[in-house]
Write a structure and sequence with these properties.
Low-confidence stretches: none
Shape: elongated
Order of helices and strands: HHHHHHHHHHH
Helix content: 55-70%
CATH architecture of the largest domain: Orthogonal Bundle
Strand content: under 5%
Bound molecules: iron/sulfur cluster
Oligomer: single chain
Number of domains: 2
Mean pLDDT: 96
CATH superfamily of the largest domain: Hypothetical protein, domain 2
Length: 208
């Protein structure tokens, strides 16, 4: 990696959290596509509570494409936006069957065209299902990078581009995980715990 502020932050966070695994439980790329779709505006642990039954009943794109969206909604009804999500799950599976022979594609362009899958979700799938470069920008990533002064924009695509330019591709996915963990653990949206932050001496937002 080039010697940049990004490099320093990555190394410090890696020393604290190490190599991260995707918190959304999944066995196949299709399961991760479903789980990441369900995680919109919803905690990962809540998603993990419903996916075992969801994947037991509709384990692959063929099965999900034939599902009744109302039945799917019944399984995921503890999650926010569950009616929209159930429709998207079935529509996405149908698109996978019709356009890709039931196989999850491995490019940003193709993934982000699937119903219910935006750029952030596509990056999660690329990085965690396929081990390909992908830097998802969520609210934690956005907040932490701005507080650190490494980006000066809240536009996710611009943040992604800044990281893509400064950080080696093989680190993108883990870097996103590290920033999310740091945002959840220490650099909270309200009342960040700057006194406990290993990045404090490099952070222009450090509140002493
Ligand atoms: S010093 Fe404070 S604002 Fe800066 S990254 Fe750490 S917790 Fe966040």
């Amino acid at each position: 990696m080039k010697k940049t502020g990004f490099d320093r932050i990555y190394r410090i966070l890696f020393a604290k959290y190490g190599e991260c695994i995707c918190p959304l439980v999944h066995d196949t790329p299709f399961h991760l596509v479903c789980a990441v779709m369900l995680s919109a505006q919803c905690r990962d642990d809540r998603v993990n509570e419903v996916t075992p039954e969801l994947f037991r009943r509709w384990p692959d794109p063929d099965a999900m494409a034939k599902a009744d969206p109302d039945e799917v909604a019944g399984v995921i009804q503890t999650l926010g936006l569950y009616r929209n999500k159930s429709r998207n799950l079935v529509a996405c599976a149908a698109a996978l069957v019709q356009e890709y022979g039931g196989v999850v594609p491995q490019s940003m362009e193709e993934l982000s065209r699937l119903p219910g899958i935006g750029r952030k979700s596509a990056n999660v799938v690329l990085g965690n299902a396929f081990g390909l470069p992908g830097f998802p920008v969520d609210t934690h990533v956005n907040r932490v990078l701005n507080r650190l002064g490494l980006v000066k924009t809240i536009v996710p695509e611009k943040i992604e581009k800044a990281v893509n330019t400064a950080v080696a591709p093989e680190l993108w996915s883990n870097f996103s995980h590290l920033l999310i963990l740091h945002g959840r653990d220490i650099c909270h949206a309200r009342n960040p715990e700057c006194a406990n932050c290993p990045l404090a001496e490099y952070c222009p937002s450090w509140k002493k």
